[in-house]
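[Solved] Which block belongs to which protein?

Original post:
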Amino acid sequence: MNHIMRLSSRLSDPHIREVVLGSLIGLGIKVLSAVSLFIMNMVVARTLGAAEAGLFFLGFTLVTVVAAVGRLGLDQSLVRFIAASSATHSTGVLHGVYRKSIGWVAIASIGFALLGWINTDRLVEHVFNQPGFEPVLRSFLIAIPLVALYTMHAHALQGLKQIAKSMLTLNVLVPVTLLLLLLIAPVKSADAVANYFNIACLLTLGTGLLFWIKSAPKTEKVESFSSTQLRKTCTPLWVVAMLSQVVQWAPQLMLGAWASSENVAFFAVAQRTAMLTSFVLFAVNAIAAPKFAAMHAKGDSEGLKRVAIWSVRLMLLAAVPALMLMLLAPEWLMSFFGEEFRAASTALMILALGQFVNIATGSVGYLLSMTGHERDLRNNAIISAVIGLTLGLVLIPGYGLLGATVATAVAVASQNLLGVYQVRKHLGFNTLVFWK
């Protein structure tokens, strides 16, 4: 009875209530995203087979990495400044930072795509010596600006606390559209699936733009946002974004360079399945991140702590069942992708443990980026990237798939544990002590 009364008392706090309700909405959408992504990966793996699926996932990973670099660290900056501008009703500033950020990202991401197109032959010959990869890579290069821009619109909507629209744009529309295309008109080659991916990204970008137009508050005058301030904030976050991609995806790219496409497919499927344990992290962060920015802007440090600790509790409550399934029945889960994918069951267990550390530490990355500690976030990313790259270089040539999974899990865990230390240092509380 006392527990129920305490819970009721906590939910009377409007900030906690908003996080709980917003997280439940986000969780529902993220579950839809997780299910559709799992089915999409399963259909791709079963339709193409391990070799062709490996080429698809290798191209998909390259797009993910380059699009993240092309966002210039402006995605999290956009959440921060739009949330703060919305909280202070500065609609002119809100539109100013949106337009400048979108413009910068469009120029950068198109530039990276063109650079990749010019050097496709060299990349295939000297880095990814996988037979049949050239047409797949060329198809995927088209998606770089599309992915970068629809992701930016998702974060802009997140800053407005339009959680459902943000998560639909970021997590749901692409896998659902791609899955529908594969079911309506099945194809048997990785480059054909890459073309379907481009169509899905284009439709998602259009939807995200429409969501923004309908959701953003109207203004008679767009105020120019300081380029210096935007650069000062996004530059360390850009480094963080690039290094986070290194932590998450470099081992898979190393497998693409040093191992067979089958091993790439095994790793990709295991990693994407393990990342389903962190779907709750994205759901909670979708509402928590703009609240962190708004509460920090208002100087509400006690409220910031309460929201952060409650966020960890929500994450653990939702993530533990998925983790237990991956640890207790990994072969059964991997068999959905085809019998040959059972070989990735040990990789799934290791990667799931790394993702669980990511969840148990809470929203430490957003806590640092939304409160002006971007440089500490950058330093944490540098350290974890060095750890991941070193382990990858040492382990992957000799141990292949197993080496890649260990390198990834350790790097992901170290980045978030360093974040816990920095939050304790700068904000005065420990997200791991979630029971207090």
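(Second protein starts here: sequence line, then its structure tokens.)
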Amino acid sequence: MTTLNPLDLLDLRAELSEEERLVKDTVARFVDEQAIPLMAEAFDAHRFPAELVPGLVELGLLGASIEGYDCPGLNSICYGLICEELERADSGLRSFVSVQSSLVMWPIRSYGSEEQRRRWLPALARGEVIGCFGLTEPHGGSDPGAMKTHARRDGGDWVLNGSKMWITNGSLAQLALVWAVTDDGVRGFLVETDAKGFSARDIGRKYSLRASVTSELFLDEVRVPDDQVLPGATGLKGPLSCLTQARYGIAWGVNGAALACLSEVLDYAGSRKLFNRPLAATQTVQRRLADMARRITTARLLALRLGRIKDAGQMHPTQVSLAKWNNTRAALDVARDARDLLGAGGITSEYATIRHMLNLESVITYEGTETIHELVVGRELTGEIAF
């Protein structure tokens, strides 16, 4: 019998097309050669490794699933594989690409005017413009309907006032997609961050996603021309549909973090000897490693199926909630158990596992907490809203 790949027990690679395998392998080389060597230092220093952005651009990873406008138009599986490989390096790197691609470029492509698409999408794809997505507010959290940021008409402009919280890429961005309440409902505004009255302040003292920029946004009488409002989005359906796109990428990405942890602890268990035998030769450790492999394999199967549904145009938001909930929980459980198996050394950045574990504590919270996704699935099962 052939020996199975311990990181791919069901040979999911065989389910990929030639193009999908090529995308995965190309991004994997970039991650191994350029990203992973930087991540421990970047995490320790609490900095985003901006020197990786040109490589992301060269590979066409910004807006990878968008067709036209200097974007490659890859399918959903390819985008998922990109997220999985990037998060194998660090959740912060995947978050950067996810925000740029799913939360800024996708809504411009889906809800923007043709003029807005031509102006912004090529620049965002080339990394000449960095974007951020302003939805979450300090007192809103999981309830976007409690939004307080508002916009009022003033001649041919809109005037925005309010604040946003926990915004990835906030102080890096030249363009902020800000969602605000208007007399006609929630609208999306393309706010250039050098506009008078706009400011961003980084959130410090983080013990998670330290290699990612997280900011507060403040809008004080910020004027936005009417042609910078997304014409195709009115109401909460607009921003929530953006979150569905981002959650899809997360459902893939977290598997990369889990795979990184399993790979690291497999190496450790095989070489670390206690009581005259390797850790890997004990029943307790083998059972724990097997459970990690079970969780990861199940999560990857779920992500692959979700991607095929998405490419067929049949994906339902509840299916995305199920995948984000299951896969993030699985990845966090794997990371926590792998950290424990690494012993005392596992709490240091000598190993990547502690970094992944801490990052996943954020990932299980953002883009919908675990509880929110449970309730989304519960609503689908019962027809009752329990939020």
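Accepted answer:
You had them paired correctly. Confirming on the second one: Residues 60 and 72 are 7 Å apart (CA to CA).
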